[in-house]
Amino acid sequence: MNIKELIRKYVFPQQNTCLLCFHEAITDENNVCEACMARFEPFDTVIKIGDIDGMTAAFVYDGVIKQAIMNFKYNGRKYIAKPLALFMEADDRWNIDFVTFVPITQNRRLKRGYNQSEELARHFCDRTGLQLRGNILTKVRDTDSQTKLTREERRANLKGAFKATQRVNGFSVLLIDDVITTGSTALECAHTLKRAGAKRVYVLAVAASEKNLT
Ligand SMILES: [Zn+2]
Fold first, then answer.
1. How far is the centre of ligand 1, averaged over its atoms, from the C-alpha of 26 (Å)?
2. Alpha helices, DSSP H, located in the chain
3. Which residues of the chain have pLDDT under 70?
4. 35: CA distance to ligand 1 center in Å?
């Protein structure tokens, strides 16, 4: 092993490693390995529900994508936002005035160090040239973990958890989320944005679980 290879291996370990599965593998320029690329299941659906005028995701929330998102959210691997955001595409029919993201509370942000949806939105806007606006939605209180709750309990848990600025009045907004499971968070955010005057609300996530949405 020459010095260049040593530096690559030990100083920049992620350069030889797939950013999604962490296996050492020949990766493309985005640092995603072929095995991962082959295992991705595209979401390929646009859903209209409640106050959401259109919602889609890059992938079905399963397998290697689920693992990558867990690492991104809970293991401090902020840099995974960039390769994940590469796969996010807005629907061609959407007229988007600006992009914003699902907020987390100040408390949660301090603990995690970053808002995962904001990171995705930043990379998505860098790539697409769409305008990113922060401070559109704020999360005003922490909510209990949603995972063990029923759909009705989730809606009740989230009621009034978000506030939107009047600066959305008359605009079509693309809301970036990390994962859509039941859609409760996205629905509550869309409802809050519409109440503040948003003309249209679209939602784009890295992954969504198909079965629970309709
Ligand atoms: Zn991989």
1. 9
2. 3-10, 34-39, 63-74, 81-85, 106-112, 116-128, 151-158, 184-195
3. 1-15, 24-28, 211-214
4. 6
